[in-house]
Amino acid sequence: MTQVDISELVFEVLESIKQKNVIPLGSAFPSPLLFPLNNLARTMASSVQIMDPWSSIDNLSTGDANLRRQIALRYMIDGLHVPADEIIITNGALEALNLCLAAVTRPGDTVLIESPTFYAALQSIERIGLNAIEIPSHPREGIDLDAMEMAIELHKPKVCWLMTNFQNPLGCLLSDEKKKALVALITKYKLPLIEDDVYGELYFGDKRPTPAKAYDTEGLIMHCSSFSKCLAPGYRVGWVATNRYVKDIERLKLTTALSTSTPVQAALAKYLQKGGYDRHLRSLRHTLLINQIKFTEAIARYFPEETRLTVPQGGYFLWLKLPDGVNALEVHKTAIESGISIAPGPIFSAKKEFTGYIRLNYGHIWDDRIEASLSTLGAVVRNLVPE
Prior knowledge:
The chain is of the alpha/beta class. It has 12 helices and 14 strands. It has 2 domains: about 5-30 and about 280-380, Aspartate Aminotransferase, domain 1, CATH 3.90.1150.10; about 35-275, Type I PLP-dependent aspartate aminotransferase-like (Major domain) (Aspartate Aminotransferase, domain 2), CATH 3.40.640.10. The longest helix is centred in the C-terminal third of the chain and has 26 residues, at about 275-300. The two termini are about 25 Å apart. About 50% of the residues are buried.
């Protein structure tokens, strides 16, 4: 399969989830019905009325000062000291990630990524003209650090791009010990790390998992996150926290997107100031955990016995290993014909690997329609098992 075919497949998956009659199990987003959109709308209406006209010019590329202070406060609550002037507001986490990538690379450079990895990372790397080196990751333990060090010595990469908390698509969570070992490794080689942490707030345990950035003493980690997956989908507000590269990223922001929507930033800043965000997060986590349980039970009922899956400690993705001989692309093709979207494994690899895997999204409100789609999907997989 060519790279063009993979790009077209990603586009097909993204297009399918826009259709209201398609069950969006292949979506990368949770249901917008899970978010306090009415409260956000009221906050935006009131914040716009009192917004300083000069705020559209002040902090043009870095972002709303109040919002940056609120984000810095949340870092502090989690035990990280991140000054507000080391935070740059972006148009979603994807812009933050792309700005970080552009700040430390030039076309032809090499980037280390985990495998499987989120397809947007592959598309960004290809668009900038970089070379991706894939490092295997375990569904529970995450990236193989021994393989990563071997790749560093062999390929001399300029940066690595990793998800340390509830990785997409695997759902794996690096332990604190492994995050410390990861930071020690990049420090040894003076290798920058783009830490993609958009799912960190969606944990099912007692506390938010610590970002790898908490252990970084050399300023090598650019920590990226957003409100899109946990509070305000469609508002497209993310950020990057960095100190060593803050000026480079700020200049890139100024010469590309220039700024992020000022009214949206003001509304989010006011919402965070008023409180209620953590209450919303607790409710969202509870819903996602219940959904995960219902999905795993349904998969056990409807899918072939040989199916294997990860059960992550947070996020909203399940990574399924299909029975031997079942091709994920065939499952995708047949599922779409039945009005069900899935994410087939090959879109998560530059080498088009993982043909026997699929990713399912359990971040949508559970109902009879969702259960029926899993029953249908299980039948599709059964029919594709070789005799």
